[in-house]
Amino acid sequence: MSPTWHGVDLWSLTLPTPSIVTIGKFDGVHRGHQALIRQVVERARSTGRLSAVVTFDPPPPVVLRPEVPYLALTDLAERVRLIAALGVDVVAVCPFTRDLAQLPARAFAAALCQRLKMVELWCGPDFAMGRGREGTVPVLRQLGSEMGFTVTTVAPLLVDGAVVSGSRIRALLAAGEVSAAARLLGRYPCVHGRVVPGDQRGRQLGVPTANLAVPPQRLIPRDGIYAVFVRWEAEVRGGVASIGTRPTFGGGPRTVEVHLFDFSGDLYGCDLEVLFAERLRDELAFREVEALVSQMRQDIATARAILARLPWPGPLSAASVPTPASVD
Q1: Interatomic CA distance for residues 212 and 193, integer angstroms
Q2: Over the stretch 46-61, which tens digit does the pLDDT of each residue have?
Q3: Nearest to residue 239, comparing CAs of 216, 221, 219, 257?
Q4: pTM across the whole model
Q5: What is the pLDDT of residues 21-36, one digit of tens each?
Q6: How far apart, in whole angstroms, are the C-alpha atoms of residue 105 and residue 132?
């Protein structure tokens, strides 16, 4: 088995053999990203070279447009894990700074040749890199003729007649359309967070919930009630998640709470990953607590039936990117 370098700082690398490279922020590692990366992996294997993916951290918009909140589909650790699961030899992390944004395309290309021994660069037809996006595909091809690498473009992936993109996925999640987002991601959309103490109201109502502290830079689907899978360590459970402000009890800060089926242990301090399978309904304000409890029990029954007919994800410790058909 050949060695791998996953999550390594780009500037600390000097690869031993030539590589086939692709570059991007790859937030979400959606089906379009997967299609490109898989072609890079196949090309590398067929030519006896290493496959290398360069991703940026933080994502460039965070640095270039700090006044505009950027809510991520994945954090760096998830991106590295999802990319590595595609069989990539090298997942190099390039710290994105204002200084890097001013680096000329020629200098960045030279660094990739030096650090990764890049002999082929694969990208989308609209790809550009370097200061002011000056390194367009034609410019990179000219640089490649001087530096010893070629440039191959891959057409964007279309699903339902439209390009798979992070912005399209974000719009679907903002609308609560998690099953449609799953078709573009090739897996269930998710959030993760540490279980923190709540007000214990769910336990008092007979439906205990785990209250998640989700990182503030993470995109959370639209408020509502969802059928979900929950992963932590080697465990996978079905459940129901509630996103919102708990209007029945007077409202408050936006929270993510999840009830796990057939579980009675202590989860405080655990990091949970909540995977959204299907939206059940809006968050509602009930006049009577009894009506809320009745609806919660109905939601649980509905979610159990939904999850019973869907493919279950593997445990987080053995997670891989499923084939798109598994969530179509």
Answers
A1: 5
A2: 999 999 999 999 999 9
A3: 257
A4: 0.92
A5: 999 999 999 999 999 9
A6: 9
Which pLDDT does position 321 carry in this prediction?
44
| pLDDT computed for residue 292 by the predictor | 85
Q: Which helix (H) or strand (E) holds 153?
A: strand 150-153
Cα torsion through 157, 159, 164, 167, rounded to 10: 160
Helix axes of 137-147 and 105-116: crossing angle, nearest 10 degrees: 50
What average pLDDT score do residues 275-296 get?
Answer: 89
pLDDT tens for 86-109 read 999 999 999 999 999 999 999 999
Look at the block and give the residue holding tokens 């780009």: 10
Spatial neighbors of 72 by CB under 8 A, at least 6 apart, are: 27, 59, 217, 218, 219
Q: Locate all alpha helices (DSSP H) within 50-186, ordered by sequence.
A: 60-64, 76-84, 98-101, 105-116, 137-147, 166-174, 178-185
Q: Which residue matches tokens 């030519």? A: 47
Q: 214 in helix, strand or coil? A: coil
Closest C-alpha to 215, from 185, 237, 190, 194: 194
Neighbours of 75 (CB within 10 A): 16
Burial 101-110 (b: 16+ CB within 10 A, else e): eebebbebbe
**Distance between CA atoms of residues 103 and 205, nearest Å:** 58
143 in helix, strand or coil?
A: helix
Distance of CA 142 to the CA centre of its chain: 34
CA distance 227 to 308: 11
- Give the C-alpha separation, 285 to 291, whole Å: 10
Buried b (16+ CB within 10 A) or exposed e, 258-287: bbbeeeeeebeeeebbbbbbbbbeeeeeee
First to last CA, the chain: 33
